[in-house]
Amino acid sequence: MSQNKIVIAIDGYSSSGKSTMARDLARRIGYAYIDSGAMYRAVTLYAIRNGLVNADGKLNNDALIAALPDIRIDFHIDPESKKSHTFLNGEDVEKEIRGMEVSALVSPVAVIPEVRRQLVKLQQQYGIEKGIVMDGRDIGTTVFPDAEMKVFVNASPEVRARRRLLELQQKGQNVSYEEIHENIMERDRIDTTRKESPLRKAPDAIMLDNDNMTIPEQMDFLLNLFREKTSC
Ligand code: DC
Q1: Whose alpha carbon is nearest atom 15 of ligand 1?
Q2: Model-level pTM?
Q3: How would you classify the pairing of strands 73-77 and 7-12?
Q4: pLDDT at res. 187
Q5: Nearest atom of ligand 1 to the alpha carbon of 111
Q6: Residue 232 forms part of a structural domain
């Protein structure tokens, strides 16, 4: 296997399991893992906490754009779980950014071009030295168009809603299947139709349809692809 490190871009629909697979892959091959969705979620949490969302759920875009210089996002490994946690202005917000309140508002935040520009710049800095796995919606198309390995993950909305329900129930959150399914469909709609960097498969990305795949099967698929891309 070549020693040359590469950039791995994993894009796909929300709750398609791409974050878990990207994190596991990074661990297996000794690469850094960056969850770009966590960055959009952290900006959304900032907006909620700072009164930039009014009572009927409408986001104050101008105020959020003005606040961007005050928003600092980074990642640190949690000493207990050994997993990467997202920090917003120095505070560990990993748990809060995964809740339904943030999920319901993150897509409107992610359509704002100024937000995207700031976060894409930060994401590109993480990739300068390569040896990175990043997951998101526009990693293979906009953030790292020259990534050596690109994967586009897909699964049906029903399978994704069931997986997400299980995940949230395990975290003790009380949500219904219908609420999650609706949120997934709405996020798909916004993510694929937005003007700025819509979710789409890069022409050179490999499609991974994981409706009927187990986690070990997905890992084999990714490791085979990685070996192919790194063996000269
Ligand atoms: O992957 P996720 O569900 O945590 O992402 C949260 C939201 O952030 C998702 O609805 C779309 C947006 N997002 C994005 O627009 N671009 C990315 N690279 C990653 C996420």
Answers
A1: 110
A2: 0.91
A3: unpaired
A4: 87
A5: 15
A6: no
Identify the CA nearest to 22 among candidates 224, 229, 232, 223.
223
pLDDT at position 1: 46
Residue 2 pLDDT: 45
CATH number at 19 reads 3.40.50.300
Q: Is residue 1 part of a domain?
A: no
Mean pLDDT by 10 residues, the chain (232 residues): 83 90 95 96 98 90 97 94 93 94 91 96 95 96 97 94 91 91 91 88 95 93 96 72
Residue 231 forms part of a structural domain: no
The tokens of 23 are what?
Answer: 């994190």
The rounded Å distance from CA 136 to ligand 1 centre is 6
Which secondary structure element, helix H or strand E, spans residue 217, and what is its range? helix 215-230
Q: Do 113 and 1 contact (CB within 8 A), yes or no?
A: no
- Both tokens of residue 45? 């949490």
**In total, how many domains does the chain have?**
1
CA of 110 relative to ligand 1 center, distance in Å: 7
| Ligand 1 centre distance from Cα of residue 130 (Å) | 22
| Ligand 1 site, residue 107, Cβ cutoff 6 A | yes
Spatial CA neighbour of 149 closest among 221, 203, 204: 204
Q: Is the CB of residue 86 below 6 angstroms from any atom belonging to ligand 1?
A: no
**Alpha-helical segments (H) within 100-150:** 100-110, 113-126
Type of residue at 104: A
Print the domain residue range for 180.
7-226
Q: Which of left, alpha, beta for 57 (phi over 0: left; psi -120 to 50: alpha)?
A: left
In a domain, 2, yes or no: no
- What whole-number distance in Å separates Cα of residue 219 and Cα of residue 21? 7
User: Does 110 contact ligand 1 (Cβ within 6 A)?
Assistant: yes
